[in-house]
């Protein structure tokens, strides 16, 4: 079975909720942020005005809400978290273990309730006594908190009086299933508590006593908040709802004194509000603040309403500045505004209120006030912001500097004088428009890619620069739209360069000295930066003097003392900083850097040897290889060179390094040519420090099938080319780079002077020799591995060795440059060029933001690699006041476009748009722009027609098609030709003549649009526009357009033609010659600056064939001859492309009279058609579809290993041969489908499976059905799936070609994920076991069930997942301590684990059938198992396997 490995390259970044309070320690103000299924805890670092991450934890469920409660009997607060699958958890902070602790957990789902169409509403009593959840229409679930220290409180007495039983939750055992987590024991009522050793993990002071289900009359509830009440009063909550008459009202419910029933408060029964009321803010004194789009109102049952107008924008979030006094409130709106609401209170009631606009931010989904004037703004539409509020408006220059910040803010003043202590204005000073002054100072930004609407994978990994690791996404909306360039690896910004050929070595030295003889203009006290270049026959010195300016005056230097007439083997600065060491093949030279004179020299002839072949310099220590097999160790002592020791080795030395572990050189590492080993020699006597280290690839398990020839060749030993000793993350490493691009790293341990190898790993970084160089970046030591695919090694979390790709190919040498004006600078060399560059911070993923104008949301993007141009379609909101063009210029362009419509054949389809424009103006307009890939400058931009919106965009090369003759057209129109007169042709192997024809339209941007006029519910018209970019004339040329009867939701290039999904039809369009007599194309017309309409005079877009789909085709994907269409409500349909030869009458007669074989028919006599093949009949609301490439031929024997004897076999064992043979068919078509319920599904064309099963057993099966091979709940809606990869395609020598990243997807909440194919059945089964063991043995905060979290979810059913591997969970295995890894690997602790983790009677049967889809047998891991025993592998092998997976993203 082929598994799909899904992992997040960029985790969800949209903030769903955020709260603040004393969580980690008393009197602290912590920030708790929910992103996707992750919960982050931050604290405001003292004196830095920056958020410091305390920890991040993944929960088994997508977080729906987060609320903070602080019961009076606790020193620290609790966090109530709910999930989208109707689960809850109460979390606390374990200060001892420094992690989240689960206080209580459970479910509040209803079997018969109707879920709300809006988001779940959760409210918490201000005293922390109870929480209310509104997730079903007319049903409120109450979660009471009972304090163990208040046994006689009125609240506890009420709960005892209810008499209700604790409801079934995740801890219930009523269904016979045992509790899966060994460290916890289940408690009735849907909760769990710690037991035994884990008691300290969740020390409890309160518990969810019961889940009370209560009913209310209101069905459309907009907001729900608890009222302020005293400790001696029963809780009450207010409900903002909309009644049947579209009127919005407030009603208050109080828990009754008898059995806890909800009792409406009569005084609140008839309080009507404005039509846009959306938010409730509870106030002391039995009142609430109601926030609407245009006004605020304080509503109370005892007093008249007090109202105040505000900016016209819907409120989105609020937070108290003074939670005790309740006088100052922060209010955010959907226009990106942040306002201050000041309440003047007297006699326990609000007497007046004021509203002051503070400034603009991203549209906030949550606000959290952190004290000291600092506020956290969480957003779904833009970056998260940490800001400081000021009592005085910022100066204009300060505001400009704030707007220029990308990641962090400039240093501000202390928070003491930034606290808001008084109202910033009165009611008369309030205006609907934002004032020019801003009281908000940006302190810090945290990147957010949400909502990610579309993305383009830049390149496909073909080895060219920029062809891998690049994704550009359409992110953000409203006030903060942007394009985000996401790149895997480290970017290099070139500063200066020069052409140099024949470079053998490169070193950089920074010395303090006097002016060199050839540059009298240099300052005597300046530092000199030297670049030492070793060429084939000489040494070249380049350098510049540090003058304190950013300008570099690099020139060639001729310094005395240097041996410039021979190549240099090594160079370095001596430990005293006053001498330079140069090593050539003839001598080791010590040069005084002050006078540039030779102070000492050592030659091999001094000891009776010939020449030096390799050398290394580390401070005052020098190690050289002489005569191939002799190693000599030298030291710089008081201006002289002393040979300390020599040693003969059994083989010639290939590379050498000397290193100081603890401040003094302790070892010399030597790589040997013939032995393919590395020797580690101790200093000063060069005695062996350990046995020879073999460079053979470490083995942990035999492959399931014989390795292919390519893999066997890659496993052959290669010679070492570079060796380096360093300390990364506190661990000493010996790194060895080989000539075939592989890198070996040995983790060492010092045991009383001798070194022991703790770990040996190997990784393939490329196919060419590697050169290793240490350098410092951000205060941490890193290693640059230069090669054809360079990488940087660094220590990640927990000291784990990590790799980051370098965004530059073909680097042969690297030298770090220590210059005052060039932080993180390095000198790089390729085959023919030398350049200075600055490197990005060392991390796995880099995100660069390119801001767009406010209210110009990017909607579609495509990349043209030929012209290095991006095509971007944006939607601009005119009502918001921020647009790329003014209304006057819009109308002028629209009038010009209207005059052009008369020349179009389908102009009547657009006449209604011009008539509608005369009646009303659109609220949104759309633009299509071309951007430069490097600078993101706008090259050309065109405004679309009124009411026309972009729907799809692609880059296609369209081939010339000849118009068919009249007889062929008649035959095509008359239906299918007779079998004798027509022959079917397959284009699966590239036989399509259109694909062989010369392309007439290369790399054209094709834009699909929709036009919805006022009063229409859906699109009845649209356009397909083809345009190119002329780089010479610097203009966009619109070369063709085609009017459609519906919206063009998807466009995909297909064999020199174009597939278009238009409403419920699939069209195949071609670039075909115009008909004779149709009239010439219109003349070249200027549309606007940089854009001309120049229709092709000979060719036009025409429909070649079409096919009806289901309801609305939203996405299209192609695999060979097959086209998959994703429907909005009817899942996926599969079509096959066919070509039929329709010979003309004259040709048929000639064929009968001629004995020669018929020639290949011309393309003009082809009839093309799309034939329905199969479809999925389930009601899947599809959002994206992508084809999965077929497995590599070398991996086909690996897909189906023999099952373990002790496990459950195939249900259709008698058909196992046919079943396996069907899935080995390389032409099998598979597709990954994403749906609106946040699931991923893999479907397959089942014709071969059906035929094999029918032949063996005569089974009656449905031949028109797409079969489900895998399904899984991702937990986030996928908006786009594109073929491609984020990393270089470098085969791992241990797992060659078995893990192939094939797809990249983007989600609504800002995640970028990778889908990889695991083309080895045994490895997939092993990873499935590892995934299950980790899910069952390592509970996450909240103790939510992992199987329920990842189970397939829809409106009709909730079923288990199978066929997908959770990469985010599996890769956490590397972060576990060794003891925990061993626990997961072995499946528990023997008999105790078996008793505590048994889920069913056949618990240890590791695999069981979870679904039978026709004749497709599907398996999924159901329980823990001993991986080593079941799969015959070692723990070290599993670790190497998971490390290989981490390199997929």
Give a structural overview.
- The chain has 1449 residues and is mainly beta.
- It has 17 helices and 97 strands.
- Strands 71, 73, 74, 75, 76, 77, 78, 79, 80 and 81 form a ten-stranded mixed β-sheet that branches.
- Strand 56 and strand 57 form a beta hairpin.
- Helix 9 runs antiparallel to helix 10.
- The two termini are 23 Å apart.
Mean pLDDT level: 78
Shape field: globular
| Poorly predicted residue ranges | 162-205, 399-435, 460-467, 515-525, 699-716, 881-889, 893-910, 968-998, 1146-1161, 1205-1227, 1391-1420
Please provide the count of β strands. 97
How many alpha or pi helices?
17
The gyration radius over C-alpha positions equals 35 Å
Portion of residues in helices?
10-25%
Q: What kind of sheet is the major sheet?
A: 10 strands, mixed
Termini Cα gap = 23 Å
Classification by helices and strands: mainly beta
Work out the strand percent.
Answer: over 45%
Blueprint of the fold:
Elements: E1 3-10, E2 17-21, E3 30-35, E4 38-44, E5 51-58, E6 63-69, E7 78-83, E8 87-94, E9 99-107, E10 121-124, E11 130-136, E12 139-147, H1 154-162, E13 184-187, E14 191-194, E15 206-208, E16 212-215, E17 221-226, E18 236-242, E19 248-255, E20 262-264, E21 271-272, E22 279-283, E23 287-291, E24 295-300, E25 306-309, E26 315-320, E27 328-333, E28 337-346, E29 349-360, E30 364-371, E31 374-379, E32 384-389, H2 396-403, E33 440-446, E34 454-458, E35 470-475, E36 482-488, E37 492-499, E38 505-512, E39 527-534, E40 539-545, E41 555-557, E42 568-573, E43 579-584, E44 588-592, E45 597-602, E46 612-618, E47 621-626, E48 630-637, E49 640-648, E50 653-660, E51 665-672, E52 677-682, E53 687-688, E54 693-694, H3 709-714, E55 720-728, E56 731-738, E57 742-751, E58 754-764, E59 771-777, E60 780-786, E61 789-795, E62 801-809, E63 813-819, E64 822-829, E65 833-839, E66 845-851, E67 856-864, E68 869-877, H4 887-901, H5 911-919, E69 924-932, E70 938-943, E71 948-961, H6 966-973, E72 984-985, H7 993-996, E73 999-1011, ...
Helix pairs in contact: 9-10
């Amino acid at each position: 079975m082929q598994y799909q490995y899904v992992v997040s390259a960029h985790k969800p970044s949209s903030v769903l909720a955020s709260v603040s309070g004393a969580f980690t320690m008393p009197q602290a103000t912590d920030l708790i942020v929910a992103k996707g299924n992750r919960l982050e805890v931050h604290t405001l670092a003292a004196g830095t005005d920056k958020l410091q991450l305390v920890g991040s934890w993944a929960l088994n469920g997508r977080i729906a809400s987060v609320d903070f409660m602080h019961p009076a009997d606790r020193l620290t607060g609790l966090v109530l978290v709910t999930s989208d699958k109707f689960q809850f958890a109460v979390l606390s902070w374990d200060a001892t273990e420094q992690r989240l602790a689960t206080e209580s957990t459970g479910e509040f789902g209803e079997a018969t309730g109707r879920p709300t169409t809006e988001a779940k509403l959760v409210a918490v009593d201000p005293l922390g006594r109870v929480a209310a959840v509104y997730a079903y229409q007319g049903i409120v679930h109450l979660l009471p908190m009972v304090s163990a220290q208040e046994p006689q409180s009125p609240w506890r007495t009420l709960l005892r009086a209810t008499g209700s039983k604790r409801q079934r939750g995740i801890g219930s055992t009523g269904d016979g299933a045992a509790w899966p987590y060994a460290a916890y024991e289940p408690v009735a009522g849907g909760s769990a508590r710690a037991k035994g050793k884990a008691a300290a993990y969740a020390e409890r002071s309160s518990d969810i006593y019961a889940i009370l289900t209560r009913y209310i009359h209101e069905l459309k509830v907009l907001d729900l908040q608890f009222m302020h009440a005293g400790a001696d009063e029963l809780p009450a909550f207010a409900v903002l709802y909309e009644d049947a008459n579209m009127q919005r009202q407030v009603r208050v419910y109080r828990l009754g004194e008898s059995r806890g029933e909800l009792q409406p408060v009569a005084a609140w029964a008839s309080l009507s509000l404005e039509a846009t009321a959306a938010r409730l803010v509870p106030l002391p004194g039995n009142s609430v603040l109601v926030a609407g789009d245009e006004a605020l109102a304080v509503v109370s049952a005892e007093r008249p309403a007090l109202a105040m107008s505000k900016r016209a924008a819907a409120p989105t979030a609020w937070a108290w500045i003074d939670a005790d006094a309740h006088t100052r409130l922060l209010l955010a709106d959907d226009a990106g505004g942040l306002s201050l609401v000041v309440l003047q209170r007297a006699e326990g009631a609000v007497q007046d209120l004021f509203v002051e606009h503070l400034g603009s931010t991203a549209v906030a989904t949550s606000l959290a006030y952190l004290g000291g004037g600092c506020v956290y703004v969480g957003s779904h539409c833009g970056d998260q912001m940490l800001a400081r509020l000021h009592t005085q408006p910022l100066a204009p220059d300060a505001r400009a500097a704030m707007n220029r910040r990308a990641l962090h803010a400039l240093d501000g003043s202390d928070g003491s004088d930034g606290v808001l202590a008084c109202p910033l204005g009165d009611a008369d000073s309030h205006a609907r428009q934002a004032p020019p002054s801003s009281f908000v100072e940006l302190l810090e930004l945290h990147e957010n890619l949400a909502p990610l609407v579309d993305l383009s994978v830049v390149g496909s990994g073909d080895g060219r620069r920029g062809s891998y690791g690049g994704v550009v996404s359409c992110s953000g909306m409203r006030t903060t739209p942007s394009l985000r360039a996401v790149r895997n690896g480290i970017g290099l910004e070139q500063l200066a360069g020069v052409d140099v050929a024949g470079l053998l070595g490169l070193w950089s030295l920074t010395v303090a000295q006097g002016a060199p003889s050839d540059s009298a203009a240099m300052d005597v006290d300046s530092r000199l930066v030297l670049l030492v270049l070793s060429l084939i026959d000489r040494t070249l010195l380049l350098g510049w003097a540090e003058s304190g300016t950013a300008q570099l005056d690099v020139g060639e230097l001729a310094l005395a003392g240097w041996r410039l007439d021979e190549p240099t083997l090594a160079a370095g600065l001596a430990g005293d900083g006053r001498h330079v060491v140069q090593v050539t093949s003839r001598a080791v030279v010590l040069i005084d850097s002050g006078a540039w004179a030779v102070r000492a020299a050592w030659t091999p002839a001094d000891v009776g040897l010939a020449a030096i072949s390799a050398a290394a310099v580390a401070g005052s220590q020098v190690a050289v290889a002489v005569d191939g097999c002799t190693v000599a160790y030298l030291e710089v002592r008081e201006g002289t060179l002393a040979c300390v020791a020599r040693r003969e080795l059994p083989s010639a030395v290939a590379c050498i390094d000397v290193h100081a572990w603890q401040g003094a050189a302790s070892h010399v590492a030597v790589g040997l040519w013939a032995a393919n080993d590395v020797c580690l020699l101790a200093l000063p006597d060069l005695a062996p420090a350990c046995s020879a280290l073999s460079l053979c690839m470490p083995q942990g398990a035999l492959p399931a099938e014989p390795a292919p020839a390519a893999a066997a060749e890659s496993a052959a030993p290669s010679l070492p080319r570079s060796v380096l000793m360093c300390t990364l993350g506190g661990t000493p490493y010996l790194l060895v780079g080989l000539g075939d691009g592989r890198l070996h790293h040995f983790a060492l341990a010092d045991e009383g002077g001798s070194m022991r190898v703790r770990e040996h790993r190997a990784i393939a970084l490329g196919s060419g020799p590697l050169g290793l160089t240490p350098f410092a970046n951000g205060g941490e030591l890193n290693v640059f591995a230069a090669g054809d695919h360079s990488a940087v090694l660094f220590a990640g979390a927990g000291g784990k060795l990590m790799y980051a790709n370098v965004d530059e190919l073909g680097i042969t040498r690297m030298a770090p440059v220590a210059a005052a004006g060039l932080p993180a600078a390095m000198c790089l060399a390729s085959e023919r060029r030398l350049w200075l560059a600055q490197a990005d911070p060392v991390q796995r993923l880099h995100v660069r933001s390119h801001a767009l104008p406010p209210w110009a949301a990017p909607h579609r993007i495509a990349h043209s690699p030929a012209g290095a141009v991006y095509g971007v379609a944006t939607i601009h909101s005119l009502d918001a006041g921020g647009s790329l063009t003014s209304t006057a210029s819009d109308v002028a362009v629209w009038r010009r476009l209207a005059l052009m419509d008369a020349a179009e054949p389908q102009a009547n389809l657009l006449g209604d748009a011009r008539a509608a424009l005369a009646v009303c103006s659109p609220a949104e307009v759309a633009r299509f722009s071309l951007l430069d890939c490097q600078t993101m400058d706008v090259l050309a931009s065109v405004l679309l027609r009124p009411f026309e919106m972009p729907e799809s965009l692609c880059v296609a090369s369209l081939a010339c098609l000849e118009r068919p003759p009249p007889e062929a057209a008649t035959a095509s129109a008359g239906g299918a030709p007779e079998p004798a007169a027509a022959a079917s042709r397959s284009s699966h192997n590239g036989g399509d003549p259109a694909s062989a024809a010369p392309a007439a339209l290369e790399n054209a941007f094709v834009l699909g649009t929709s036009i919805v006029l006022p009063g229409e519910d859906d699109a009845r018209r649209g356009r397909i526009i083809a345009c190119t970019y002329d780089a010479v004339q610097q203009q966009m040329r619109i070369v063709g357009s085609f009017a459609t009867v519906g919206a063009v939701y998807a466009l995909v290039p297909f064999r020199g033609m174009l597939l278009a999904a238009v409403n419920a039809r699939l069209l195949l369009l071609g670039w075909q010659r115009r008909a004779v007599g149709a009239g010439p194309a219109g003349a070249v017309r200027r549309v606007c600056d940089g854009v001309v309409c120049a229709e092709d005079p000979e060719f036009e877009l025409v429909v070649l064939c079409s096919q009806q789909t289901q309801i609305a085709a939203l996405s299209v994907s192609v695999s060979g001859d097959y086209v998959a269409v994703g429907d909005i409500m009817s899942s996926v349909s599969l079509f096959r492309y066919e070509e039929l030869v329709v010979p003309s009458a004259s040709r048929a007669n000639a064929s009968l009279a001629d004995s020669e074989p018929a020639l290949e028919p011309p393309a003009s006599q082809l009839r093309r058609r799309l034939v329905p093949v199969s479809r999925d009949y389930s009601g899947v609301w599809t959002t994206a579809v992508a084809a999965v490439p077929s497995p590599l031929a070398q991996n086909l024997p690996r897909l189906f290993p023999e099952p373990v004897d002790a496990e459950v076999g195939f249900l259709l064992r008698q058909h196992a041969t046919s079943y396996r043979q069907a899935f080995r068919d390389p032409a099998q078509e598979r597709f990954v489908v994403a749906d609106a319920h946040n699931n991923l599904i893999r479907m397959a064309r089942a014709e071969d499976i059906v035929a094999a099963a029918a032949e063996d057993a005569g089974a009656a099966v449905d031949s028109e059905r797409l079969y489900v091979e895998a399904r899984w709940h991702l937990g986030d809606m996928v908006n786009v799936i594109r073929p491609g990869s984020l990393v270089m395609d470098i085969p791992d020598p241990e797992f060659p070609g078995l893990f192939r990243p094939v797809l990249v997807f983007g989600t609504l909440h800002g995640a970028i994920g990778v889908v990889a194919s695991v083309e080895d059945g045994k490895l997939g089964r092993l990873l499935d076991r590892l995934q299950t063991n980790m899910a069952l043995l390592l509970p996450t905060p909240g103790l939510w069930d992992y199987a329920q979290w990842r189970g397939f979810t829809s409106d009709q059913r909730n079923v288990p997942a199978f066929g997908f591997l959770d990469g985010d969970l599996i890769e956490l295995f590397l972060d576990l301590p060794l003891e925990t890894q061993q626990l997961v690997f072995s499946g528990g602790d023997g008999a105790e684990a078996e008793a505590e983790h048994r889920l069913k009677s056949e618990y240890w049967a590791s695999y069981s059938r979870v679904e039978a889809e026709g004749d497709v047998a599907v398996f999924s891991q159901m329980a823990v198992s001993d991986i080593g025993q079941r799969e015959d592998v070692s723990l070290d092998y599993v670790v190497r396997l998971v490390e290989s997976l981490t390199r997929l993203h």
